[in-house]
Amino acid sequence: MDRMQETQSTPAPANARTVGPFSVTEHGAFAEPWAADFAPGTNVLFITEQAGAIKFVDSSSGRTGTVSGVPTVDYGGQGGLGDIAFLPSEASAKLDRRTVYLSWAEAGDGDTRGAVVGRGTLVCGTADACRIDQLSVIWRQAPKVTGRGHYSHRITFSPDGKYLFVASGERQKGEPAQDRSNNLGSIVRLTLDGKPAAGNPFAAEGGVTSQIWSYGHRNILGLQFDAQGRLWDVEHGPAGGDELNLVKAGQNYGWPVVSDGDHYDGKVIPDNNTRPDLAGPAIGWTPVIAPGDMIFYSGKMFGDWRGHALIAGLKTNAVVNVKINGEKATEVGRYDMGNRIREIVEGPDGAIWLLEDGEKGRLLRLTPS
After folding, report:
1. Catalytically annotated residues
2. Pair 263, 239: CB distance under 8 Å
3. N or C end of the chain, less CB within 10 A?
């Protein structure tokens, strides 16, 4: 059996500590980790580091390794290597090659840059090393602009496995989020090879507009489908007004026209409820939680939380537990982890995995205390 396919569980290390409802164990540290994903059908967690490296940890054995063939990234500010995602359809235990999607910041002309998504083949032929072959860019933010913020570039797949959704931040420019002639400040829906998907709400307008699924977004850091097949995002507001949104085709989510936060300089922004014609959040936060990512929990270890959104909190140093009530949501728990939390992932056995933000961000496994 390929070591990448091992599925046995690991006894809890002796250094476990208790944090709220969690028993927490540490599994190494990483340099500015940004995203993580388990290769489907395995216990191997792949982790991106913002400066441009990918590492992996076999959660069943503790084995670690590195990935070569990673693209050159424009590193700085909020930019660098971003998300990593695998096709759920490639969960066969016999696979030693699988499709991998990456997002990263790419340099352009004249001090401009933008997020891109690339697709390649991950090949893991040895115990401690993998490589990415034939990586090619299949989607770009358009246009590239100055600055190094609000790339968003989160990736997810539709439940039927046919479509790729990408979060495209408004790059701290504001107004482009209301202009559908570009794809900034939007969520795009693509085929698995990066083309605009048939049936998109603005397909008839052609060009980059035909990619757009929803718009009026600011800086999306979490993008996930729930068990009912509904798409949700969690995004940063300005000074206040972080949002969890139920994302619907063709909807305008209001940024920068409305927000339940205000500009950093104190300039007032009209609240969401002043524009009922625009889509409002299922729940908002002022003060902000500064989300890092989110999951919809589906496992058995924390059975009472099944269907809840669990959000990684940067500003709050916390895991934020949100119960979904139809198209609205309620925060039902907040668990202080002591450090900024960048990433949250559900493991194959239902354990929750976190990555701390920063230079020595620890990988933490959470099980019931």
Report:
1. 150
2. yes
3. N
